[in-house]
Amino acid sequence: MDRPYPPDDVFTMNVVGGFLPSLEVVAWIREQVIADTGSLHNPDHAHLEHADIGVLWAGVRNARRGRVVLGTAEQVAFRGNAWQKARQEQQMQDWFGMVPDFVITLDAGFCSEAPDVEFAALVEHELYHCAQAINAYGVPKFSKQTGMPLFTLRAHDVEEFVGVVRRYGVGHADGAMQALVTAAQGRPEVAKVDIARACGTCSLRAAG
Fold first, then answer.
1. CA 33 – CA 124 distance, rounded (Å)
2. Contact by Cβ (8 Å): 105, 17
3. Given this model, what pLDDT does residue 180 score?
4. How many CB atoms lie within 10 A of CB 96?
5. Helix, strand or coil for residue 184?
6. Nearest of 131, 111, 138 to residue 122 by alpha carbon
7. pLDDT digits (tens, 9 = 90+) for 120-148
8. CB–CB of 57/19 below 8 Å?
9. Strands across the sheet containing 102-107
């Protein structure tokens, strides 16, 4: 299945707010990334086989603190009074024909020009945020009523970095991912003993 591209309509005034739902990207994710027969299959996302995912193309630029945001992943939750929640649910139904577990929003301008590998890396980056909930012992949670996975939104962590770097490399030479890898390959600037002395938790364990 060919990688999907945003339609021209998302960049015009024909789209209210500059957003368009994309069933094509959802299908691409399921067929190429989640399914074990996909050319980009990643078992890290196996739990998403049972998740309802909605994808939006964003024709509106999103910049935060001087950095352009290329994608976001959100767990759908309705907040506010009864009318506000009803409006939010209606918007989800209008976009996706359902209320999804997660909504991934992608910068249409970037995705219309990005090489395939950068598009795939961006999508997988957002998928890594869409996690199965775990209990205090690290065991995946399932619904007692349906037996289906319970979901949560995961922040950036080492597992996400490892997954993306393993599959797509470190990206640009001057990027944050390359800086992380370079730091990991170099000699530590602070010895382990110095870290232990500066850490209250380590000090308590040593005293015990």
1. 8
2. no
3. 63
4. 20
5. helix
6. 111
7. 888 988 898 898 888 888 888 988 888 88
8. yes
9. 19-21, 53-58, 102-107, 71-75
